[in-house]
Amino acid sequence: MQLGAATTTGDAEGEVIERCDVAASEAQIERALAQFRGTIDQVPPMHSALKQGGRPLYELAREGVVVERAARRVVIRELTLLERRDRLLYLRVRCSKGTYVRSLAADLGKALGSCAHLAGLRRTGAGGFEIGAATPLEVLESMDEEARERLVLPLRTLFMGLAEVVLDAGRASRFAQGQSVPVASPDLGRCQVLDARGGLIGLGECGADGVLRPVRLLAISKASSAAAQESQKTL
After folding, report:
1. DSSP reduced 3-state for 21
2. Would you say the pTM of this structure is higher than 0.85?
3. 233 Cβ partners below 8 Å, 6+ apart?
């Protein structure tokens, strides 16, 4: 984040609209960071994709319209100063979904008695995925299609840690069409739902009543759909 300057967008792409004095010591910076660790209420920036009256806020912002935004509760699990170069602060942030790092930078600037904007942002992880396990673009470009395909992770990798529910053909077909189905194990909560062959159908939610309700479904191919319907006829 860059101290001493606020921009229209809250990041380096916007125009500077305010310049402020900066007189923050290392101790003051640490005290300011401590204020934003844990659960906080954050007001989303105008330049965001949140909608009001059916229109994204960024569209209104481009027209010079500023509307009131309700604060949202987010969690800042880690907020650490890695390096300081005069007015430029390098921070590491671990946060919940829905966090606007641009707003965090601006709020930190205010807490330091100054103003600030986000100078740059690099996402190093999301969920269970870390950038260290990624393959650089230039390496991918040097590979043939078959070699690239071998690097693609299975879709189910997205749902690591969730319980698995395997459905027979009849229930799998109904679930794939958005219907709730009974299961033998209640209280599973959010789970990944598979067909008898181990294919992922989607995500479900199972409560104490032992009913599995669809949350997110995958689009199934015509061949899979036809096979499911045929198996349903034989039941």
Report:
1. coil
2. no
3. none
Domains in the chain: ranges and CATH = 2-126 (3.30.2350.10), 155-233 (2.30.130.10)
Within 8 A by CB and 6+ apart from 78, the residues are 37, 92, 93, 94
Dist. CA 75–CA 78, nearest whole Å: 9
DSSP state of 64: T
Strand partners for 91: 81
Task: Please state, in angstroms and rounded to a whole number, the distance separating the CA atoms of residues 203 and 175.
Answer: 10
Q: Among residues 8, 36, 9, 16, which one has the least CA distance to residue 87?
A: 16
Tokens at residue 191, please? 């789970």
Cα distance between residue 47 and residue 232, in whole Å: 50
Query: Which residues on adjacent β-strands are paired with residue 189?
Result: 206
Structure tokens of 28? 């003051």
Helix (H) or strand (E) holding 88: strand 88-95
Give the three-class secondary structure for 89: strand
Kindly report the backbone phi and psi dihedral angles of residue 171, in degrees, each rounded to the nearest multiple of 5, phi listed first: -70, -35
Q: What is the pLDDT of residues 169-209, one digit of tens each?
A: 999 999 999 999 999 888 899 999 999 998 999 999 999 99
* DSSP letter, residue 9: S
The single-letter DSSP state of residue 158 is: G
Q: Report how far residue 50's alpha carbon sits from residue 55's, in angstroms, rounded to the nearest whole number.
A: 8
**What is the residue type of 97?**
K
